[in-house]
Amino acid sequence: MANEMEELINFLSSPSPQVKKAAVDIVRGLTGSEDGLQSLATYSKTVLPSLSRLLAENKEVSEPAAEALVNLSQNSDLAAKMIEMGLIKITMDVLYKQGCEIVGPLVMLLVNLTQLDAGVESLLQGLYVMKLVRSFCTSSNEKEDDPFGHVGSILVNVSKTKAGRTLLLDPKRGLLKQIIRQFDSTSLLRKQGVSGTIRNCCFEADNQLQNLLLISEFLWPALLLPVAGNKVYNEQDTSKMPLELGSALSIEREPVTDPEIRTQALEAIYLIVLQGAGRRAFWSVNGPRILQIGYEEEEDPKVMRAYEQIGSLLVEGNDTEEGSTQTSS
């Protein structure tokens, strides 16, 4: 004989819309507490498929079902089971079905699922990443509700894997170039997503530096403007920079107040200047001068350490290059 929880899960498949709606609302409520999550986890084999089937129904049923899955997917064991049962494909199919009304929770579900490598692997199997980048770059972030803004977190997760970085850095697809341009957004959430994605992609600088430098007109402003300090630069400094950097630094601008974004920008620069060609490219845009001015204004200890790490590397790199020049002559 079925116990109360089994009966509740069975009601998720009821032919009666009212019963189904009541059942999914109760399940969503249970996922809001630790005890409820534990109880439902015991029945994951039946509750997860039942909830996933409801994603394609009307909003009053699909929304609580999606929200329940978001809460359940915070448990990594349950998230792994969801990935195994093909929930990434199901979610993407519903998300890109015309007139989808539950974009926000579906994107959040993908954020949680891609925290596991298996989730990223599943997302990379279709054209899913390209679709998400397009939505991220073409959706408006001017409204308070910016459901595709969280795609930035998915891209950070994707770029934590080598296969993900390879896809994003592929010059034929031009995905990273599209993503970087969202750094101009007024949304902090989007800026954080872009910043984290660039930083992760720079871990490929040892073998993909050329692809990174191909988009340098977008890359350097995204990395250097957050760490350039707040002062208006003089013409002597800006004349040694490319136009896109010099123009931005010669006027008043909004400071980047999030220390995490500044740290990530500096870590990305460090990974680039570890390479000789990256160091030369950095000097060519007057990067060291920008960091010198930014460091003078910086107050956050963690960010200051990131500046100092680059400073040490530039001094060492300069000495090494000068030494090799003298040897060869």
Task: Give the end-to-end Cα distance, rounded to a whole number of Å.
Answer: 89 Å
N-to-C SSE string, H for helix and E for strand: HHHHHHHHHHHHHHHHHHHHHH
Gross morphology is: elongated
Largest sheet: none
Number of DSSP helical runs: 22
Structural class: mainly alpha
Helix content: 55-70%
β-strand number:
0
Q: Assembly state here?
A: single chain
Contiguous low-pLDDT stretches (5 residues minimum) are 322-329
Strand content: under 5%
How many whole angstroms does the radius of gyration measure? 24 Å
**Average pLDDT for all residues:** 92
Notes on the protein architecture:
- This protein is mainly α.
- It has 22 helices and no strands.
- It has helices spanning 4-11, 17-30, 34-41, 44-54, 59-72, 76-84, 87-95, 103-113, 117-123, 128-138, 151-158, 162-169, 175-180, 188-201, 205-213, 216-224, 235-238, 243-249, 259-273, 276-284, 287-297, 301-328.
- Helix 5 runs parallel beside helix 8, helix 8 (103-113) packs parallel to helix 11 (151-158) and helix 11 packs parallel to helix 14 (188-201).
- The longest helix is centred in the last third of the chain and has 28 residues, at 301-328.
- The N and C termini lie far apart (89 Å).
- The model is unreliable at 322-329 (pLDDT under 50).
Summarize the structure.
Helix 2 runs parallel beside helix 5. The protein is mostly helical and 329 residues long.
